[in-house]
Amino acid sequence: MARLFNAVIFLIVVTLCYGFNGDSFELECPDECDCHYFRINWVTDCSESNLTEVPYDELSLSVYVLDLNGNNITSLGPFPHDIKMRRLQIANNRLSRVERESFKGLEYLIDVDLSGNQITFVDPEAFLDSRGLLHVELQDNPLNITEGPFLMSGTLQYLDVSNCNISKINGQFFDNITSLTTLDLSNNPLYNLDDGVFDVLTSLKSLNLNDCHLKSLSEDIFSALVNLKYLELAGNHLTETNWPEVLGKLGRLEYLNLRKSGITSLSEDSFSNCTNLVSLILADNELRDLDVAATLGNSVNHLELLDLSNCHIKGPISGEAFANATRLKSLYLSGNPLFAPDLQEALAPLPKLEKLFLSKCGLRNLPDNFNVFENLLELDISHNPLVNVFTRLLAPLGKLEYLNMGYSNLSFIGPETFSHMTAMKHLVLSGNDLLSLEAGLFGNLTQLTTLELEFCGLKRALNANAFFKNLTYMDLRKIKLGGNPLFIPPSGPLFPKQLSQVVVLDLSNCNISELNPDAFKNNENITDLNLAGNKLKSEDGSLAFLEILNHLENINLSNNNLTTIDPQLFVNNPKLHQLNLIGNPFTCDCKIAEMWDWANMIKGDLNVLVGAKSAERDIIVKGNKKKKNLHCRYSEIRNITITANKSVPGRRPFTKPREISYANRTWAKYVRESGCEPVVKILRPVALVRNKFGERNEYYFSMSALILCAIAFTLGAATVVMTWRFFQRKNLSNFDAVTHIKQR
After folding, report:
1. Which of 63, 99, 621, 739 has the smallest number of CB atoms closer than 10 Å to its CB?
2. pLDDT value of residue 666
3. What is the pLDDT of residues 430-455, one digit of tens each?
4. What is the C-alpha to C-alpha distance for residues 88 and 76, in angstroms, rounded to an integer?
C-alpha cells in the first residue's frame, strides 16, 4: 500500500506541475483577445483591439488579469457572477462614468486601472464589494469632484488621481479611505489646500503634490501626517511659504523634493526639525543668494544627498557651505556657474563624497584637491569647456569608477589622459567630435566594463591601436557606438581581438545597410546586440553574421527594413531568449506564423518575441498604457470570410465567423486568423487533445482534466483496495482469536 500511496502522490504532483505549464489549462478566451499564462495566472489581453464593449460572455471566470487598455469602450456593465478577477486594466478608453453596478460582485479585485479615459463621475460606493482592494489608478481623467467622500474602501493603500483637473479637495474627501499609504495628486490645478484636508490620513507615507499650481501652504497643512517619509512638492509656486512651520511636524521625513517650486530664498531654520532628512532636492529654483551653510544649519546631520542643480547661485560657494553636512555622499551642483578655486575650498570637508556632478558649470579647469576624495566613485564633468589637463588633476582619484566627459567640445584626448585611472569601470566620451582615437588611449583601463562613444563622428569602429596590443580586456563587456556613421568593411571582423570578451554591443542608428558574415568573428561572446534603427533588409545572407554568435541571448532588430524573417536564421543561436522586431514593415504571410510557432513551441515562450503579448511592465500598477506590438501588413486591403479554424493544430479556434478588413494586423491576430499550418511537428498537448475531441464535441477537454479524472479513478480504486484489505485483516484477527480460545 505504501507504494500505491506514493504513486498517487507522485501523480498528483506531476499533474499540478504539468497543469500550470502555461498550455495545459487552456481557459476561455474572447475572439479578439490573446490569452496566456503569466506565471500561474491567466491573463486575457484584449488591448488595442478596437473593442467597443467588454466581451463579458467570453471571459473565463478564472481570469486573473484582464487588459482592455487602448480600446473604444464607452461604458461598463456588470461582470459575470463569481468571476475571480484580481486586476482590471481599462486605461485609454472612452469611459465617462464609474458606477457601482459595473464592479458589483468583484470580491477578488485588488488592482484597477481606469486612467486615461473621459471619466467625470465616480460612484463613492463603486468598489464597496472589493474588500481586498489595494490600488486604484484614475489619473488623466476630467473628474468632477463633488462634496462628500470620494471613495469607500477600508483597505485601499494606493490612490492615483493625478492630472484629473481637480481644483478643490473638500474636507470629507479622504474620510472613507483612511488606510492610504501612497497618494498622488500631482498635476491638478489645486492652487490652495484647505486646513485639515489631510488630517485623517495618519498612515500616509508618500504624498505627491508636484505641479499643482500651489501658491501657498498653510502652516498646519501636514501637521497630522506623522508617518510621512516622502514628500513631493516640485513644480509649484511656493515663494511665500513659511517652511519652518510647514515642515515642523514632519520629524520622520526622509525625502523632500522642492524642485522648481519658485523658491527664491530659504531661512536658516527651514529644515531645522527635519532631523531624519536623508535626501533634499532644491534643484531648478532661483536661489541666487543662497547661503548654503546657513540653510543646512546643524540639523541635517543625516543628509546624504543634496541636489542644488540649476539654482543659478551667483555668489562664490563659501568654504563653510557643506561644513555641517559631512555625511554627504551625493552632491549635485550641475548648472551653477562655478570656479575651480571656490569649489576647491567648499568641497574640502566632504571626504565621504561618492558622487559629484558638475555638468554645465562653465568649468575650464578642475579643483586641485581631488586627492581628498578618497571614496569618490562617480564624477560627471560633462558639458563643460574643458581643456586637456586631466592627467594631473584626476590622477589622485584611485577609486573612480564612473567618469562622464561627454559633450565637452573635445576634439582630441591625449594618450596619457586615463593612464592612472586603473579602477575605471564606466567611461563616457559621447558627444565629442573625436573622429579618431589616439594610440594607447584606453591601454591602462584594464578594469573597464563599459565604454560609451555614441555620436562621436567615428567612421571606424574601435581599432586595435587604442588598446594594448597583446592584452585581452577581460572586464570590458559593454560598448556603445550608436549614432556614429560607421563604415562597415565588406569582409573581415569589425573589432580587434582585444575586445573578444565584449558581450553587449550597441550599433544602433549607425546607418548600417549590411554586415558581412565575419563582422563579429572576434566577438563571438556577444549576448546582447543592438542593431535598431539601421537599414538592414530581408535579403539572402543579410543576417548571416548571426551564425557565429552562439551565445546570443538578446538581439534588437527593430526599426530596420525587414519585410520577412525565417526562424531558421536563428538555428545557431540556441540561447536566444529575446528578439525585438518591432517597427519593421513585415508582410503578413506564413513566415509570421512560423516565427510565432518557433517562439511558442521550440523556444517554449512567446516572450521571446518582444511585442507578441503583454509583458510584466504592461500589467502592473503604473505600467505601460500604450505598449508596442508586433505588426504586419497584408499585401493589399482585402475582405476575407474565415470560418472557425478548428482544423489547424496549435491555433485557438474562433467561435464565430470572421471578416478581415484591416491592412495592419498584430502578429497575434494574424497567426490566429491565418490558418497557416504549423511547421513544428512537436505540437502542444492541448492541441493534440483538441484535435481528437474538439471536432465531435462543442466543448474541449484539456489534458489536465483527463489526468485529474485518472487520479480520481486511481484514488477510488485505492480506497476500495484498502477497505477490502482492512476487512480481510479484521476477519483474520477474529479467526485467530477463536482458534486461540479453542486451543485453551
Report:
1. 739
2. 86
3. 999 887 888 888 999 999 999 999 99
4. 12
In 3D space, the residue among 219, 171, 175, 225 whose CA is nearest the CA of residue 202 turns out to be 225
CB 46 within 8 A of CB 71: yes
As a whole number of angstroms, the longest Cα–Cα distance in the chain is 117
297 close to 271: Cβ distance less than 8 angstroms:
yes
- Round to whole Å and give the CA distance between 685 and 705: 12
Task: Supply the range of the domain harboring residue 660.
Answer: 627-692
- Among 526, 555, 585, identify where a domain stops: 585
Residue 641 lies in a domain: yes
Domain co-membership, 13 together with 52: no
Task: Report strand pairing: 121-122 vs 111-113.
Answer: unpaired
Q: Count of CB atoms within 10 A of residue 217's CB? A: 21
Q: Which pLDDT score is estimated for 697? A: 39
Question: 3-state class of 469 per DSSP?
Answer: coil
Count of domains observed in the chain: 4
C-alpha cell at 5: 500511496
Give the CATH number of the domain where residue 580 resides: 3.80.10.10
Same domain for 36 and 106, yes or no, is yes
Rounded Cα distance, 490 and 518, in Å? 9
- Contact of 299 with 275, CB cutoff 8 Å: yes
All cell numbers assigned to 446: 584594464
Taking only the tens place, the pLDDT of each residue in 393-429 is 777 787 899 999 999 888 888 888 888 888 999 999 9
229 domain residue, yes or no: no
In a domain, 327, yes or no: no
